[in-house]
Amino acid sequence: TSAFDLDHALTANTQIVLAFRNGVCIKQVSSSPSGTDEFTINPTGGTGGVGLITFGSNIASSDDLKVFYVI
C-alpha cells in the first residue's frame, strides 16, 4: 500500500510531520513522491476527513512505519 490514513485530520497549524521507515527518517515533498523514501501529506484527504500520507511506491508489509505529527 502506498497511502495510509492518519488518526486525525491535520490543521493549518500542523508544523511538523516526521515519517520513519525502518528507523530512517524519510523526506516530505510537496508533490509527486518518488519511491518509498519520499511522501506527501494531505491534511484532510483520508477516510472521514483524517490526514492522509502517500508514498511514491508501495510500502512492504515487513517495513516498520511510524508517523509523528503535532496537531
Task: Outline the secondary-structure elements.
Elements: E1 3-5, E2 17-21, E3 24-28, E4 38-42, E5 52-55, E6 65-69
Parallel strand pairs: 3-4
Antiparallel strand pairs: 1-5, 2-3, 2-6, 4-5
Strand content: 35-45%
Helix content: under 10%
Could you report the average pLDDT, rounded to the nearest whole number? 93
Uncertain stretches of 5 or more adjacent residues:
none
What is the string of SSEs from the N terminus onward?
EEEEEE
User: What's the alpha carbon Rg, rounded to whole Å?
Assistant: 11 Å
The global form is globular
Protein structure class: mainly beta
Count of strand segments = 6
The tally of helices reads: 0
Distance between the termini: 25 Å
Give a short account of the largest sheet: 6 strands, mixed
Order of strands across the main sheet: 1-5-4-3-2-6
Could you characterize what this model shows?
By secondary structure, this protein is mainly β. Helices cover 0% and strands 38% of the residues. It has strands at 3-5, 17-21, 24-28, 38-42, 52-55, 65-69. Strands 1-5-4-3-2-6 form a 6-stranded mixed beta sheet, with no helix packed on it. A hairpin with a 2-residue loop joins strand 2 (17-21) and strand 3 (24-28). The protein is globular, with a radius of gyration of 11 Å.
